[in-house]
Every structure is written in C-alpha cells, then in structure tokens.
Amino acid sequence: MFYYLYTLWGQENVLFNLFRYITFRTAGALLTSLLISFLCGPMLIRWLKSHQRRGQPIRDDGPTSHLLTKQGTPTMGGSLILFALTLSTLLWANLTNGYVWIVLLLTLGFGCVGALDDYLKLTKRNTKGLSAKKKLFFQIAMSALATYAVMELGNPALATSTSIPFFKNILINLGWFYVPFGIIVVVGSSNAVNLTDGLDGLAIGPVMIVATCFVLISYLVGNHVFANYLQIAFVPGTGELAIFGGALIGAGLGFLWYNAPPAKVWMGDTGSLAAGGALGMVAVITKHEFVLAIVGGLFVMEAISVILQVGYFKLSGGQRIFLMAPIHHHFEKKGWSEPTIVFRFWIIAIVLALVGLSTLKLR
Q1: Is 161 strand, coil or helix?
Q2: pLDDT digits (tens, 9 = 90+) for 130-159
Q3: 183-228 confidence digits (pLDDT tens)
Q4: DSSP secondary structure of 184-238
Q5: Nearest Cα to 247, choosing from 212, 219, 222, 274?
Q6: CA-to-CA distance for 105 and 98, rounded, in angstroms?
Q7: Among residues 48, 53, 170, 321, which is most buried (max CB within 10 A)?
C-alpha cells in the first residue's frame, strides 16, 4: 500500500519518493511486522491459553524432561507470524507484483494445513494430527500450482531453469520436470523446518537466518546491474520478495520474544510448515534452489537424520543410528541442555548461511 504513495506523490515530494526504494521498504516491513508481533503477541498467547487448557500433547517417547517442563504450553503461535507477515507485506510491497502474491498465498495455504494439523492434535489429544498422506496431498497440490504460476509469470528463457552454485551463468533447463522439482524444493523445505521445530527457539532462529540470506539474494537477482556483476541469473521483479523476506524476519524476531526458552508459546505446524514453504518458494522464484540446500543446511541435516533413522530401523529389524530423531533429540538424550543445543545449532546455521552466500561471488 505504501508503494502507491510513491506512484501518486513521489515526483512532487522527496519524502514519498523514499517508498520507491526496495531497501527502505524492506526495513519498514521488518520493523512493522516486529511491532505487530509485540503488540498482538500477549493477546494471542492469552487467547490460546484460554482455549488450550492442557496445551499441545507431548510425545510419550520423547525426552522425559519435556513431560515435566513443557506440559501446558500452547501451540499454533505460528498464527502470530502469519498475521504480522501478511499485514506487513500488504503494507509495504508492490501489490502489482505477481511473485509477491504467489509466495504470500502459498505461505498462507501451508499455514492453513498446519493449523488444521495442530487443531486435530489438540482436539484428539494425541501427536498424530492430520494424516501424512492428506498433509502431503495439500502441500503437493499447492506447490504444483505455485510453481506453474511462477513458470507462466517468468521469462520463458528462465521459466524452467535452475542455477548451479559456484558456476558462472550455468543454468540447467528441466523442462516440464521443473514442476515436480519445484514441488520437491517447497514441500521438502516445509517439512524440514517442521522437523526442526522441536525445542524452544530452535527453528525460528535458522528460519530468520535463511530469510536474511534470501532477502539479499532476491534483491541481487532482481537488480540487473548486480546480477550481471555477480554473473547470476537476472529475474525481473524478484526484488519485491526482499520486502516479504524482511517481513518474515521481523515476524520471526517478534515470535522469538515469546518462544525463547522457556517458551510461552510454540509455533506448531501452523508456523513451521508455512515458514518452510515460504523459503522454498522464494528459492524457486529466484532460481537458487540448490543454494537453499546450503544456507538451510541445518534443516537438511534434521530431515536426513529422520530418513536415516527410519530407514535403518526398518532394514535392521529395530536398531537405531541415533538415540532419537530428529537429531536435536539425540543430543538431548546424550545430556546436552536445551539452550546449548539451540545456540550451537544456530551457530551451525550461521556458518552454513555464510557458505551459501559465498557461492554468489565464487563463480
């Protein structure tokens, strides 16, 4: 909405001309979503507590400390992230940009699937929620539609291509396989973030770190001068995704205020599925899907730990690689304190983010 102030009065007033700049609007979106989170967070937590007397069900096979320290903690706090993110994006982004709507609608769609999953867990008083098949069906359907929309909206020369890290101007054209490729990226990212969301503050920190990386990537990919200098694919219009990313960072910071150990609220699948899907969709639009696997390497590690654990358990007749999966629970079982795991995993996420960003220059 604020972007229209520039189009209406930017030529006449220097102050309104500020709304022309993506950098200014990204900062505005970040601060706006942070302020919304601070203002609405306490009210939402009180409302969730009043409707979730016993909080989110705790896994019986999980760390025993969780049964003592986390009972009664309300879930679905991801709705705060979605509200702040959506309102801030609508206020600061150029709403004529199709990419903004694709990412925003997909994020809200994944949030609705997560909310349904959380609701079923609460009403059934178990940790199962929505069945895996139904959850995947909705995720795949929305990811397919969003990826197809990106292909139709983008430059035909780039529509079905993906870039390769560390190599200059090398794009692989996947043709119609780009739709299933986009599905894998978005659904994989969504569920990887969901698996990481097991300790207070563990998932939201890396989400903000990865979002920060893609704020920069979106801006560079959408700027012809910087894209040529760095020899990366130029995708017109992606600069506006920096505003969405800034709003996600601000909403994440605001949520972390209440999610820091000991958490007053959990994001639940409402937030984790939505945040992961958003990151995956931005990577698809900017043609940096493989860079997402690097900067979001922590999420990849968590997902792989579950795949290895389940696969080895079935093949070996009941034996395990880790004491418990995802891998953050393995370290809990080994006696690491929750804050120690969270901060060390954040450090890993920061290092991987720096490695991923280095691929923009090392070409």
Answers
A1: strand
A2: 889 999 999 999 999 999 999 999 888 889
A3: 999 999 999 999 999 899 999 999 999 999 999 999 999 999 999 9
A4: HHHHHHHHHHHHHTTSTTTTHHHHHHHHHHHHHHHHHHT-HHHHHHHT----TTG
A5: 212
A6: 11
A7: 48
Give 319's contacts (C-beta < 8 A, 6+ positions apart): 312, 313
- Integer Cα distance of 43 and 37 in angstroms: 10
Coil, strand or helix: which one is 335?
coil
pTM of the shown model = 0.93
Q: Is 326 within 8 Å of 305 (Cβ atoms)?
A: yes
Structural contact between residues 187 and 136, judged by C-beta atoms closer than 8 angstroms? yes
How far apart, in whole angstroms, are the C-alpha atoms of residue 10 and residue 356?
37
CA distances to 1, 4, 17, 21, 193 from 13, rounded to whole Å, are 17, 13, 6, 14, 44
Q: How far apart are CA 141 and CA 105, in angstroms?
A: 13
Instruction: Tell me if 342 sits within 8 A of 261, measured CB to CB.
Output: yes
Tokens 């986390």 -> residue:
70
